Amino acid sequence: MAPSTTIPAFSHTPIDAIPGIAAKARATFRSQKTKPLEYRLTQLRKLWWGLKDYEAALVEACKLDLGKPSFETSTGEVMWCQNDIIFVCKNLKKWIADEKAPDIDVKHAMVNPRIRKEPLGTVLVIGAFNFPVQLSLGPFIGAIAAGNTAILKPSELSSNTAAVMQRIIEEYLDPSAYFCVQGAVPETTELLNQKWDKIFYTGSPGVGILIAKKAAETLTPVTLELGGKNPAIISRFADTRLAARRLAWGKVINSGQVCLSHNYILIDKEALPSFVNELSIALKEFFPNGAKSSPDYARIVNERHFHRIKKMLDETHGKILIGGTMDEKEKFIEPTVIQVDSLDDSLIKEESFGPLFPLLPVDDLDQAIRIANEVDSTPLAMYPFSQKKEDIDRLLNEITSGGASINDSFFHGSIPTLPFGGVGSSGQGSYRGKASFDTFTHHRSVTHTPSWLEKLVAIRYPPYGEKLSRY
Ligand code: NAD
């Protein structure tokens, strides 16, 4: 197929069509069609080609939706998913094979105890807007690999990208097994009224609660990939130049619309002046002519989110040290560094999901640990910065998080073989690579008792009499 740059029109799926789509996906699952290894590999390879053929369209669509730089779309969306597909395809045969029960003795070995890897059934994947391809097709890859039928509901906020993904799914994948439903709250509500074998949701914690409640009515399992208030903590023994460059990158990418971005920075008072100076140098180096004129700086997804972030800046009692300019028409917000002096500041208390760097100076690590645990005791990520191992060990031991990158911004989230997920209020379950397969797989314990074993197993039957002495 020739590479396509055409972005199809986005349109909501008619609500009354949704039950039929779900029923069709369920009927296909029951037909056993999606279970053979070759079928799964074929679908995954086709998806790889769909991503390749539509890469230019996806780049264009992400630009329209988010002003996302081409580099970020190619690496963080398209190639990201393609690499995941390659990894999954290489390993799938091994993953789907039965596993012998571990550490069994001879008498148990006679019943061949093993774990069968079975697809869960028909699953729903709900995506978020900020990495519209990766966060939608990433879990979808796991659903296909595990042998499920699946329906994707991308975010309507990144509608152009959603439309291209629908085109890819409909042109490249088995139309009886994989579907894309487009829409916002009404369509998602109707989707949630259907019966699923798993719901995989990425998005805000508030909506995550709604999804979990609805799923609980039918005991449907959920994976929730949510947001949080991720701290970066800079000790007085940190390399402030490295910390500044790496944290600057972690906030300018996608204009800070990254679930893994640091939400606030707790910085030792001694390190503050040098860190602010280095941050200013790093931002100038990244955007020599300013972020606004750079092709490498994204925009805020819509007016609502633009005004939400603007309000946080308008209402802060903190002092803007770097940046602060905005352009409503372009939905542009400059990378902005603010020194705040109170935990009650909404820049600390709320997830900005934008290019803001609130800095809260602290006296020492003890205070930083206390504050981080008070603000959000289970964030999605944590970024400890220090050249001293004892500092890092303390921070890792005394503050929990879904994942952590030491002396960096979210490197852990880019390692394809590390499970990605939150903890507590930042989510439950994980995915990527093998974890994606496991997330959509039922690990079914099975034994097979041969008839010739009857003499041996008869010990379990009453009357028990003196049988205990023979154990
Ligand atoms: P969102 O919750 O607004 O939307 C996510 C999805 O839920 C969309 O598909 C949307 O259509 C749907 N939705 C919205 N309201 C709904 C409702 N009332 N009922 C049913 N469905 C509904 O989230 P967002 O704005 O797209 O993303 C930003 C949030 O997501 C942030 O909190 C961010 O931290 C989090 N996030 C988490 C991850 C992660 O991997 N942990 C990744 C990206 C974003």
TrEMBL record:
SUPFAM superfamilies named among the record's database cross-references: ALDH-like (SSF53720)
Keyword NAD: yes
GO CC aspect terms: cytoplasm
Any one GO molecular function term: aldehyde dehydrogenase (NAD+) activity
Keywords recorded for this protein, A-Z: Carotenoid biosynthesis, NAD, Oxidoreductase
Record: active site: E225, C259
Top-rank taxon: Eukaryota
Domain Aldehyde dehydrogenase: 20-446
Similarity section: Belongs to the aldehyde dehydrogenase family.
Name recorded for this polypeptide: Aldehyde dehydrogenase
Native source species: Trichoglossum hirsutum
Native organism taxonomy: Eukaryota, Fungi, Dikarya, Ascomycota, Pezizomycotina
